[in-house]
Design a protein that fits this description.
By secondary structure, the protein is α+β, with helices and mostly antiparallel strands. It is built from six helices and five strands, in the order E-E-H-E-H-H-H-E-H-E-H.
């Protein structure tokens, strides 16, 4: 698990049955597909900032995270591209480390080691996430 801020945490997790988890996703967390934790963290920070500024396009932080992560403006397209699937995903918690640990247990998620991304890949991810801000 990585603490991005005191109230934003990202954990790489293994999802066994995404279809069962989707209805359980609430406002304080989201499960997403990503290549590395840094791209997910950056998109989550942009989502938080958009709500603070009133420039959000989605109704929820989780929805805004998906838009930022995918670089798309339609939530259905963002979900199709970056929504939770069986296998490796990232759990993004808009809350404390304690809440993150509770969710790992509550959702029966296996936490996986978090690897850093290659710097060149990160540049592309950051540009795509920031693109939503401009459009």
């Amino acid at each position: 698990m990585r603490a991005v801020t005191p109230n934003l945490h990202v954990a790489k997790v293994f999802v066994k049955n995404a279809d069962e988890l989707i209805p359980r996703i609430k406002g304080d967390f989201q499960l997403v597909q990503g290549e590395c934790w840094e791209e997910v963290a950056f998109a989550a920070l942009l989502a938080l900032r958009s709500f603070e500024r009133g420039t959000n396009r989605a109704r929820t932080l989780g929805g805004e995270l998906l838009l930022r992560l995918s670089g798309r403006l339609q939530i259905k397209d963002a979900i199709a591209e970056r929504g939770v699937r069986d296998g490796e995903n990232y759990l993004v918690v808009f809350g404390s480390e304690k809440r993150t640990r509770e969710l790992l247990l509550e959702l029966d998620l296996e936490e996986l080691p978090v690897d850093d991304c290659e710097k060149e890949k990160l540049k592309t991810f950051f540009e795509k996430a920031a693109l939503v801000e401009v459009l």
